[in-house]
Design a protein that fits this description.
Shape: globular
Largest sheet: 8 strands, parallel, barrel
CATH superfamily: Aldolase class I
Oligomer: single chain
Number of domains: 1
Structural class: alpha/beta
Strand content: 5-15%
Distance between the termini: 14 Å
CATH topology: TIM Barrel
Subunit structure: Homodimer.
Keywords: Cytoplasm, Gluconeogenesis, Glycolysis, Isomerase
Mean pLDDT: 95
Helix content: 40-55%
Catalytic activity: D-glyceraldehyde 3-phosphate = dihydroxyacetone phosphate
GO molecular function, one term: triose-phosphate isomerase activity
Organism: Arthrobacter pityocampae
Low-confidence stretches: none
Length: about 260
């Protein structure tokens, strides 16, 4: 089973800094036994080509884009299309992050269009879902995230759904002021996601205040196939330590099943 460990750098890192990180990652992976761990890195748009140029030929690390428009071309000032990010070397597109929903007006419908466009061009959609604290406090987390996912995947056949990755990122747990979720809090949402999408999608990931202190416990939650990490992985050493934790988890899980 593949264990995914990915990071989005958001609006951070220059082209030079991105290249330095990518070269360091490539060199470090050459000396590590990462096993079934599959890393992915999502730099800012300005650095996709640089990072993909360093990591792309190796093939072990997927490079992604943080956003892409649903149209292939046109009068969409300031936007970037899926063919354009693919041309820069991206093989994955992050879609529907709560920051884009809150600050840039993304809706379930635009998210659905972006997922469809990403699949149309043979890239991997990384669909982000997650509920605000008000929904969590009212006991509606599971219903909320299942509805978000269903709307984003509406109209797709099973073959297309199988190429989608879903990252559950509760809004109350992400960002600088987020509160780390406990294993108990995540059990029910992932049980529901597992019932609906386990074995149907490319992976079910967790993101939200992931750190070196809780990564192993998060990976131990049933139906969690990997981690989508923010600040801890912006530093290369932190990202490499997360990959090591995931590799150790994968080895111990394999031994338990022998």
């Amino acid at each position: 089973m593949t264990v995914w460990v990915g990071t989005s750098w958001k609006m951070n890192k220059s082209i030079a800094e991105s290249g330095e990180y990518a070269r360091g990652l490539l060199a470090a992976l050459a000396t590590r036994d990462a096993g079934a761990v599959r890393p992915f890195v999502i730099p800012p748009a300005t650095a996709i080509a640089t990072v993909a140029g360093i990591l792309g030929e190796d093939g072990r690390v997927l490079v992604g884009a943080q956003n892409a428009h649903w149209e292939d071309s046109g009068a969409w000032t300031g936007e970037i299309s899926v063919p354009q990010v693919a041309d820069a070397g991206a093989r994955m597109v992050e879609i529907g992050h709560s920051e884009r929903r809150e600050h840039f007006g993304e809706t379930d419908e635009t998210v659905r269009r972006k997922v469809a466009a990403t699949l149309r061009h043979q890239l991997i959609p990384l669909l982000c879902i997650g509920e605000p604290s008000t929904v969590k406090d009212s006991g509606g987390s599971t219903e909320f995230i299942l509805e978000q996912a269903a709307r984003a995947l509406d109209g797709l056949d099973d073959d297309h759904v199988a190429r989608v990755m879903i990252a559950y990122e509760p809004i109350w747990a992400i960002g600088e002021h987020g509160r780390a979720a406990t294993v108990d809090e995540l059990g029910e949402p992932f049980a529901a996601l597992g019932r609906e999408y386990g074995g149907r999608v490319a992976g079910l990931l967790y993101g939200g205040s992931v750190g070196l202190d809780n990564a192993a416990a998060l990976l131990g939650i049933e139906h969690v196939d990997g981690l989508f990490v923010g600040r801890t992985a912006w530093d290369l050493e932190g990202y490499l330590r997360l990959i090591d934790i995931a590799a150790g988890h994968r080895r111990s899980t394999s031994e338990d099943h022998q």
